[in-house]
Design a protein that fits this description.
elongated, about 650 residues, about 25% strand, about 35% helix, 5-stranded mixed β-sheet, alpha+beta, 15-stranded antiparallel β-sheet, 17 helices
Length: about 650
Amino acid sequence: MTDLWSFLLQTLTATGAAAFLLIVKELFRDKLSPRWQFGIWGLLALVLLLPAGRGGRYVLLNWPLWLETVKTALTGDYSLIRVIAPIPLPAPLGGPQTPLDVLYFVYVAGVAVLLAWYLLAYLRLRLALRRGSHADGAQLRRVAERYGLPLCRAVEVEGLSSAFVCGVLRPVLVLPAGRAVDDKVILHELLHLKYHDAAWGLLICLFRCLHWCNPLLWYCADRAGNDAEALCDQRVLERLEGEDRRDYGRILLSMASDRYARAPGTSSMANGGRNIRARIEAIARFKRYPAGMALASVCVALVLLPPLTLGWGQTLARANGLGRSDELEFHTAMASARLTSCATAAGALDAYGKAVIQQNGIYRALCAPLAEHAALAREMESFAHGPDPWVHEHWESGLPGRADYTVGYFLYNLTEADGGYTATVVFPLQYAELDGPDAPPVYESEEGCGYAAWQTVRAEWQGERWVVLPQGDFQVEELSLSRSDLYLLTYGEPALPAAVTYAADAEGLRLEIDYQTVHTVDNAVESGGSSFFGPSTTFDTHPKPNARFSSARESYDFTGTETVPGAIDLVDRYAAAPVYPDGSGPELRWDSGQGSSSDGTFWGIGRDYGSLAGGGGSGLDGDLDDPPVRPDHYRMELTFTDGREAQIAELRPVEGGDAP
């Protein structure tokens, strides 16, 4: 905890868990044993020890989202609340800068004062024990041997009303000097010693200090201490029989008026009149719980463990159509975007694609660096409250035209680089703005071809999230596909950038292969209609932060052009196959006409077509979150009509390789 917001997140998360456990304990008050009643507080201890809100997750109640919303609304701060540790950490130098910093300083000072007070009380007690005398060990040894319990050093101290155990690492059994101590009292304290109850008391004191201003957690600390005593009573009664049990109750009753002021790191039989009366009532209804109840207790604890320690992950609030006056909803949506981390590169790229398609700044915030959220929010607010107001989440991506949201987007040429990925994001357009935003929109070319805008982006891991960083402006390309066939972009498109171009010069020909990959996320959802081919689907416009790539294809487009007139007319047949960096690759294939195969090979007959051209694609196997292995080069064989020997050409990358 480094500021007031991180403390609030930690203590409110624990408050929700504490309230839930109190309800559960009340439901099982007479049904499960004191062992379970005390042990279940371990779940609250885990909640207190684990940093709250880690990974955007929340326990029972969505405190991270609510606090992020309130923080932004009050302060305009779009940073993410982080609980690095469940204890207060030193704040940056320079002193408090805001009233909230002052409040955090007051909290830290309270922790320090309470810790010092508890430490001083413990040191004073240890000094008082040094003045005590060595206790006669005969009675202690007799009780310990009878019940098979460990012993520790024992001292007698004047002025005590009851025995207690002091210390964790070097415990001391303290007895009142000049007073007889019943064996059952010693049994109680030796059981505290055996089960290290003083250590549990010390941990409870620590939690009191860390959450000194949270009354519910103080109440839970008291309940946990009382449950520890009730458990010790249960252990004592399990070792006693008949009249001894009634005597044990009378001994407790005699302590009902004792002053209860226990120092940290100690355990004693007395814990206040009201609590002792409750313990006596428990003794009156004492029973040995059957063995099967232990299994039931464990099952109940295991059911409670995941929601109290793991919690739930954030889901992005849908942000479509926020009105210009919906300030609180806007802050909530931005808080949701900060907390909902993109867990995969595919998820971040999917969020970016849908942000551009819908011009939605909330979706852009989902995959934007946290440092850019404040500027992004100001941009959206300027649109919402400007002279020509838009809805509150509107964001200008710079897309030159209107995206076709029925088709979605495509990721071309995904490449791993420097721990991240680069890709060309392609957006089919309903209309394109070819000459600036003031020019009339263009829907299709004279040939009936459609348009697409593309942009190079980089996805990289920052902190606890994948983010997308644009690497340049949008470019518009006229496609070889008609507007009705834009979904075929998943198979590649020669007009769009290639991942790499392989080329070679051979026998008066310039041979070139443009190689592309296309990755997609499954965004098809049923639209409610149906046809002969099955249910109708539409594009899901809601981001998927944990998305995986559902398909990946590689495609290539081959062209052979003459550098010597008439060279193409002499080509009889040609065939090509990829060769991968390890030297592997499919064999050359020959078939009739022009064609291609799923292994990346293709072929054609030059004399019949008067040109050298071809293309194709194939699905990729393996982990689709990893980019495919690109060919190192292509091997092409050409045969000729004039009787010359067949020629082998190696098409090498024009950039990044040895181009011939």
